Amino acid sequence: MNFETMRAILAAQIPARAKVLAVYLLDLQGDNGHAWPGWRTIRRECNMATETIKKAMAELEDAKILSKKSPVSLGRRNTNSYTIHADRSTWVERSTRVERNRSTRVEHTHPSSTHYPPITSSEAVKLAELLLALIIERKPDFRKPNMKTWAAEVDRMIRLDKRTGERIEAVIMWSQADNFWRDNILSTAKLRKQFDQLELKMENGRNSKTSGGSKQNNRPSPRESFDQLQSNRGNICKVG
Q: Which pTM does this prediction carry?
């Protein structure tokens, strides 16, 4: 075995499983620079599971310590040929590998990823505060939620579901005035899930009143109601 290479492997910035596998293959390849152990042999000799071996090999290849060729015919069976490179100048340092992997992840991020960017919409924050204020008006001891999470749901309604702020505000006000829905819409996530149904019921109610010839009352606008709630209760809904 090349002990200089072995010491370099043990000092390399790679996981322990990769070091064990590299030293094992280095010992097998001897002076000819190649080793041909089968998977069953590697599992037994290194006391590793198949998935662990796969990860270790990927880490060694990523660091340019190991190269693999497949397959090489050996009688009745085929097996991979493994080479541990003694020339440390070809090895890739961990900092370089990490930066390269980060770049790859950024390039391959799918546009439909479920990871959303930070909330920047003040409108989403205000609408989340509106819902909480109306709930607290009825139930003062309502447990204060994570307002960033609430605002994120509203932001998705605006940005992904293409709901306007005016529509969301109207549905919030209607749902919290309705005897049934006000006890069911206690979060912005539930508001988003039920939005279409809520909006349809709200519109149906308006149409019924119009067709019935009922007089329009002087009820304040949703925004006026919210401003009044905030002035009465103070700043109870600031985003944490």
A: 0.42
